[in-house]
Amino acid sequence: MTPNLTHLTIAQAASLIRDRELSPVELTRACLARIEAVDSRLNAFITVTTDEALGAARQAEGAIAGGRYLGPLHGIPVALKDIFGLAGVRMTAASRILAANVSTEDAEATARLKAAGAVIIGKLNMHEFAFGATGINTHYGPARNPWDTERITGGSSSGAGAAVAAGECPAALGTDTGGSIRIP
Fold first, then answer.
1. Is 81 a catalytic residue?
2. 153 pLDDT exceeds 80?
3. Which member of 81, 123, 157, 158 is catalytic?
């Protein structure tokens, strides 16, 4: 019996993808459907990169089928805290004053994820400019705790915590200065 695709661990998904029992496209579509189904309540994402993610998933699938498996992140959907640059995609840092800011290049961490074959699925909500421990954001609203939406997730990487816990993506990249990934 196949477990729910959106609640696979990275290790489980990587093993299935490596063995060609799970398509990166299938996993990415499952995550995008999960985002569509629950994110209006959770507010974990600021930007979802549907077309780019599906394109990267198709590339990963082709490479793996051609015998070019890159390792455990190949074909795995990963979301980024909206403080990491993703070329051609807006990077707001969860601030209204950067609402139209578009990254011209990938951040080093983003580039490394892409080089490992990760599928970037979107940009995550956070405490404005990563400057706070609650994740409460007056511009984009707070990311909500998936287990009790009356509560916040806490931490400036609040969207990352909510997205992974809710099965919107198997992994997310956050940052931590004073508890930002430890609190969620």
1. yes
2. yes
3. 81
